[in-house]
Write a structure and sequence with these properties.
The protein is mainly β. The protein is built from 1 helix and 11 strands; from the N terminus they run βββββββββαββ.
């Protein structure tokens, strides 16, 4: 059983930065496809970034590309999401999710077996 715990959210000023963490337990995150999603009140869930941990291949949504970086620390079983140039439109709950997808499937996947409870990001 994989458990994911997000942290690092909080209040940021417009133009500021935050680094979110997704800590995994129960299985090495290095074997998983890990995704970061966000959801704002009244809006649909939006994919932010993904990493195919075995290969380190990364994918970014068009809306976030250039402002976010997803990375992993296998020794800590943690995946990070660094966000820069934040705007109020980036506010929302950020979740990480994981599943054992291969490289191509990781990019296209819409469902994940494991998901954390989220960390709130507020930009104001």
């Amino acid at each position: 059983q994989v458990q994911l715990v997000e942290s690092g959210g909080g209040l940021a000023q417009p133009g500021g930065s935050l680094r979110l963490s997704c800590a995994a337990s129960g299985y090495p995150v290095s074997r998983y496809c890990v995704a970061w999603y966000r959801q704002a009140p009244g809006k649909e869930r939006e994919n932010v970034a993904r990493i195919n941990s075995p290969t380190g291949t990364t994918y970014y949504s068009d809306s976030m590309k250039g402002r976010v970086t997803i990375s992993q620390n296998n020794a800590k079983d943690t995946v990070y999401l660094e966000m820069n140039a934040l705007s109020p439109e980036d506010s929302g709950m950020y979740y990480c999710a994981a599943d054992s997808y291969g490289v191509g499937s990781c990019q296209r996947a819409t469902t994940f077996d494991y998901r954390g409870r989220g960390t709130q990001v507020t930009v104001s």
